[in-house]
Structure formats: structure tokens, C-alpha cells
Amino acid sequence: MRVEILGCSGGIGGNGMRTTSLLVDHDILIDAGTGVGDLPLERLAAIDHVFITHAHLDHIACLPLMVDSVGELRERPVTMYATRETLDIIRRHIFNWQIWPDFSQIPTPDNPFLRFAAIEVGQAVTLGMRSITPLPATHTVPAVGYHLHNQASGASLAFSGDTCICDPLWEALNAVGDLRYLIIEAAFADRERELALLSKHLCPSLLLAELAKLRARPEVLVTHAKPSQQEQIAREIAAGNSPHQPRMLAPGVILAF
Ligand SMILES: [Zn+2]
Ligand SMILES: [Zn+2]
Questions:
Q1: Which residues have CB less than 5 Å away from ligand 2 (the ion)?
Q2: Ligand 1 center–CA 72 separation, angstroms
Q3: Quick one: pLDDT band at residue 100, thresholds 50, 70, 90?
């Protein structure tokens, strides 16, 4: 499997700052933040599956626009996967004919541009030799991460999505025997630790305490830093001298496993 980082910032502001989106091979998106907007039309039209971690705007911003742009170029619907709770929020607040049309009904309910599929933590969706399994997360709204497993190579990548302290996440990750990469968030610098706890995100000190619960030694990549705090977050993580040696993720990076 090949994961291309389309966006890994907590916000926008030039300098390659795009919000969360990962392109898996040519046909799967994990989240649909503003990084999706850089893909040319033919690459957008090749996306069949979109897995959403949670309903926050930085993770779904480009989904409504993408579906509208590619709908008539495709012969089958794009499938959006999320938990039942997240699907309900997105349908009620985005695809509600007021913010955006309900593309699960047009052009016809029988052959729409978009269809919704409910998923559950721990239950894998299998697409050929690839499986994608929702992971537990703790956030201010219902949220999951994702475990991507390549059955052909016997290797895995895990992505936390937005999360704060979450023991069930580490239990799940400690059960993954072939974890090659872990992408995990640190949204705030340590001076905003209280805000991180309040908004259910991680900051470097919380991230390093969480990482100590991980038994495996994957490559750890840090995502979702606030644009104005990226360098401070990187410094604080480096100063922590974690045996996991986390590195900041960057847009355009390709992870193969
Ligand atoms: Zn969020
Ligand atoms: Zn976010």
C-alpha cells in the first residue's frame, strides 16, 4: 500500500499548510481536509472510498466539493465510511440541501454520486488485499482513527485521527503485530496543555506520555500541529528524548508498506 500525505496541518496559511487528508493507493482517502483540493480532477475522479475519522471541518472540508466535481465523471457512487454517529452529523449538517445538496439522492436515489456506509470500531472493511479498521479515539465529538493493513506485505500503518488520552487506542495498537508506521496528532504546544485537554487533543508532553504505552517500535510521525505552533511543537517533541523518536510529518511524504 502507498499512503501519500495530502495534508497534515492543523490549519491553513500557505507554506504547504493543508488540513488532514491521506491518499491510500489511487482510490482511498482517509479524511478529506483541504489537502484534497490540490489533486487534479482525474485523480479526484479515481477515488472510490472516503473514510472519515470525525465530522470536524478540517477533516471533511473538501468532501462536499469533491463529490460535486467528480460526480458526472464517474459511473458509480463514491462511498463515504464513518461511524453511525459521524454519518448522522455530516448528513444533518452538511448534505442537508442548505449547506450543500444531498448527493446521496442526486442525480437519482438509485444511482447517486455519494453513498454512506456505517462502520464500527474494530470491524475491518476489506478492499482486495487491503483492510481498514476503525481504531478507538477520544475527542470532543464521536471520532475514530484507522488501522490500515496490507495483507500482501504483512505490514500496517495506524493513524490516530484527532485524539486525547485514550487507553483503548493503545490496547488496540499493542495487538497489531506488524505496525510499520504510526501517524499521531499533537495539535498544541505544551504552553496550551490545558486547552489541549479541554479540546481533547494532544500536546508534546501528553503525546510522549501516551507513546510510552506503545510496546512496538514503528516509525512515529506527528501530525495536526497548529500552523503558528509547528516549530515549537517539533522542538518540544525532540527535547522529550522519547525512545520512539517521533518526527514531524510533512505534506507530500509517501509511506509504502
Ligand atoms: Zn477534531
Ligand atoms: Zn482536526
A1: 56, 58, 162
A2: 31
A3: very high
